[in-house]
Amino acid sequence: GNSVTQMEGPVTLSEEAFLTINCTYTATGYPSLFWYVQYPGEGLQLLLKATKADDKGSNKGFEATYRKETTSFHLEKGSVQVSDSAVYFCALSIAGGGSNYKLTFGKGTLLTVNP
Amino acid sequence: SQTIHQWPATLVQPVGSPLSLECTVEGTSNPNLYWYRQAAGRGLQLLFYSVGIGQISSEVPQNLSASRPQDRQFILSSKKLLLSDSGFYLCAWSPATEAFFGQGTRLTVV
Q1: Which one of A3, A6, A93, A100 makes the best mutation probe of the B interface by having the most chain B beta carbons within 10 Å?
Q2: pLDDT, tens digit (0-9, with 9 covering 90-100), for B85-98
Q3: What is the residue-wise DSSP string for A45-112?
Q4: Which residue of A6, B94, B98, B110 lies most exposed, with the fewest beta carbons within 10 A?
Q5: Shortest Cα distance from B80 to chain A (angstroms)?
């Protein structure tokens, strides 16, 4: 079946540090890949996505590149801020029956950024 | 633009009581709709999905059920809550490959 493995953390960084959160996947077929962010007490927000190999998704200074050869989609940011503190989820989607796509999530990585 | 509404935001219910959580989507038609549960370990578990009115697929057998009485309405229900039903419940809709989530309902069964 499909699965997503990401470093569970927690990850604690100082402001302006470099961030990497690793994510690898297994999937049948050609998945689309996503990073979602969840701030305390809220739902998940789509942070970025990539739909085919070598695509780079980017948003708010975060980037991730779809690497088919290593089945990875690592999240990076060059300089984190306190406001980036949240839980980050890596996810993939594969078409199910008809037009239905089902997301498979990693377990999430808690990031805490200290001033 | 599309928006998704989910309520209530928090709920405390006694064991054995019924449950009804509602989710509605605006600004789109015939969306795929999903219910997820997030337990204390932070992972998300897909509970139900629906590709149309009256069409419900269950991913995990459990004490919950779902219904889609209207195109943009998705309801999560239980006849008798268990302690193990506590968690953070998230509704989502999908236009294609990605999903967009509501703000969630924090359910505590006491």
Answers
A1: A100
A2: 999 999 999 987 88
A3: EEEEEE-STT-EEEETTEEEE-BTTTTB--EEESS--GGG-EEEEEEEEEE-STT-EEEEE---EEEE
A4: B110
A5: 26
